[in-house]
Amino acid sequence: MEEENKIAKLKELAEGVAKGNINLSVIRAVKTLENNIVSTGELSAEFKTLRQDYNKNIAYWANKNIDIREFLDNTGYTLNKAESTERWPKYVKGERQVLLTEGNTVIDVKSGESMNLFKFVNAEYFKDNPKMSDTAHFVNQIYKHAGGTSMLHNITEKKGKKENIFNVQKAVKEFKLSDYRIEPLNDDNIFLKKRGIKKETLEDRIFSGTILQGNKAMMNSEYNNVIYPFRQHPGEKAEDMKTLLQQYGKKIDVNGNQVDKIFAAGEGKTASLWMSNPPPAGVKYVQVMENPLDCLSHYQLYKPQHTLYVATGGTPSSGQLELVDKLCKEYKAQPVLSFDRDMAGYRFDAMYLAHRAPDKVHLSGAGDSVNVTFKNLSEVCHRNLVTGLEKNGVAFEAAAGTITATAADEKQMQLLVNVANIHALPRRIDIDKAKYKDYNDDLRLNIRQPELHKSLEINTLNMKI
Questions:
Q1: What is the pLDDT of residue 457?
Q2: Is residue 418 within 8 Å of residue 457, measured between CB atoms?
Q3: CB atoms within 10 A of CB 315
Q4: What's the pLDDT tens digit per position in 309-363?
Q5: Least buried of 34, 73, 143, 167, by fewest C-beta within 10 Å?
Q6: CA quadruple 404, 408, 409, 411: dihedral, nearest 10
């Protein structure tokens, strides 16, 4: 598409937006075209004016029509059912607690500050570009994180009043095992074979009953997927699962996104994990990964004798992190973090450290824009950290006893995790990473590292905490 044609198309979309023709598909179309134009180089005054206008219109619509709960979930908040009422659900993330109101806003329990979706997104997600306006940043995050129609409110008009009332008690389909056809895993499952998993691994007692296959009840057997049951304790049977993760053999379209795995409907993931069975020799380590496939791969590579494997299925919720701690306490075991060797994986490491020590570490932002705030720093530590961050080219803001550093890439994120590990906890958490992105990559490349349960190199900044 020629540059003039792109501007003409964008103008057409912007005019529709100005008239109220806005939905998630329109937002995706506008932002996709915008990104295409931006990538070509110098931007015209006409384009900048168009972008400013449609961003305002999209932001106004999104702030009213997109459920703030989706972004609470995305940033690690979990519903505390025990302390919630029908009118005031409470969400928690570490020590932070917020109440969800009927106006699609949240109220901080401690400070009383009220935040609508616009304000919440700008507080929790770090800007890709510091010069970006709050409105442009907000619309970018809606574009990045908005899924299907489930993100929208059920909006009703209250009689006698002009304003809209938001029904935040959105109907969420509960997980029902009867909706699925669950079968024992076929040893010849093509997907797992292609990923290098051997029959003897699947038949090992540590994985017995933890890997299944099936699909929705109405789907024929030829559409079988790998099914990973998520439970709250290794002693539970597969049929007691709180949710399930389906792993497809190829990427499929789900609400406009290409994915190869998907969770069952409902909120079961927020407080359950995929789990192996406890090893016969006893549990000394609870090893936490993103995908159960990586757990299978790690075991096939190393055959550890004292490891209970768990997987979060992606971004960990605070409920999942609490469950990891609960398992460690029960088995008197050490946690070992083995999330992927990428930006997201290091962010998940930092989430766990912040969960364990909220008075020392706070995390905000998402994707490739992550802030790590180090709190209650001693004078010496503060000085050394400033020097180390400057030496490594990490952007930061400093105040008395506090430093907020921003990771611009994977290497910097790893550095901040290292600092958090030594600063936050009296005993460092072991963090094992695959040599490549994940342990299934290592398995397929036949890469075995010499040590298990090794801490990261902590002394990067030569800090004395």
A1: 47
A2: yes
A3: 18
A4: 999 999 898 899 999 999 999 999 999 999 999 999 999 999 999 999 989 999 8
A5: 167
A6: -40
Q: What is the mean pLDDT of the chain?
A: 84
According to DSSP, the residues that pair with 215 across neighbouring strands are 181
Residues of the chain with pLDDT under 70: 1-3, 86-87, 128, 130, 146-173, 187-188, 221-222, 253-257, 366-368, 453-465
By DSSP bridging, strand 90-93 and strand 96-100 are: antiparallel
346 in Cβ contact with 414 (< 8 Å): yes
Sign of the alpha-carbon torsion through 434, 436, 440, 445: negative
Q: For residue 400, what are the contacts with CB-CB under 8 A and spacing of at least 6?
A: none
Helix or strand or coil: residue 196?
Answer: coil
Residue with tokens 């931006």: 38
Per-position b or e across 233-251, b if 16+ CB within 10 A of its CB: ebeeebeebbbbbbbbeee
Element (H, E) at 430: strand 430-431
Q: Which amino acid is at 53?
A: D
pLDDT tens digit string along 253-282?
665 667 788 898 888 888 899 999 999 999
Q: How many helices (H) and strands (E) does the chain have?
A: 14, 21
The string of DSSP codes covering 12-65 is: HHHHHHHTT---HHHHHHHHHHHHHHHTTS---HHHHHHHHHHHHHHHHHHHHH
* Cα 231 from Cα 275, distance rounded (Å): 7
Pair type for strands 243-254 and 273-275: unpaired
DSSP 431: E
Residue bearing tokens 């110098």: 42
What integer pLDDT is reported at residue 142 of this predicted model?
84
Neighbour count for residue 223 (Cβ, 10 Å): 12
- Amino acid present at 424: A
pLDDT given at position 438: 95
DSSP state of 212: E
pLDDT at 366: 64
